[in-house]
Design goal:
The protein is of the alpha/beta class. It has one domain: Trna Endonuclease, Chain: A, domain 1 (3-Layer(aba) Sandwich). It is built from 3 helices and 6 strands; from the N terminus they run αββββαβαβ. The chain has a 6-stranded mixed β-sheet with strand order 3-1-2-4-5-6, sandwiched between helices.
Length: 130
């Protein structure tokens, strides 16, 4: 977890509620593939707490995928948010919402995100709470 990203993920989660799983393992490493992590995954309609493991059975659950970067919204973060949804679909949740959290806006990238069903949340450095 990154000191520049984790607090942003948690700040978003505090507004949404549910069970937060940080560094959720969407795909386990294998001989022919790398491990794929979500910066955060929120399981809605569960107790408001941070899960102490990196896995959770989300079959039939409503989930929010979170990918977070401290920098300006860009193609790397949007790519993560977009493709994460396809990885999570394999775990059979009832619904999936994909959220890209960033430190600065980019109007062009936000327009693309909206066209592809990705919510963009900007949480700037000035929002750090001690």
């Amino acid at each position: 977890m990154s000191k520049h990203e984790t607090w942003r993920t948690r700040k978003y989660w505090e507004q949404v509620g549910g069970l937060l799983i940080e560094e959720f393992i969407a795909v386990k490493m294998g001989p022919d593939r790398g491990r794929r992590l979500m910066d955060g995954l929120i399981v809605l309609n569960e107790k408001n707490e941070i899960h102490n493991e990196r896995t959770y059975d989300i079959e039939g659950k409503d989930v929010i995928i979170i990918q977070t970067k401290a920098s300006r919204l860009g193609m790397y973060l949007l790519g993560q948010a977009y493709f994460s949804k396809f990885l999570i679909e394999k775990l059979n949740p009832r619904s999936i919402k994909s959220v890209a959290i960033c430190g600065k806006r980019d109007l062009l990238m936000e327009e693309l995100a909206e066209k592809h069903g990705i919510e963009v949340v900007v949480i700037g450095a000035e929002e750090i709470t001690p």
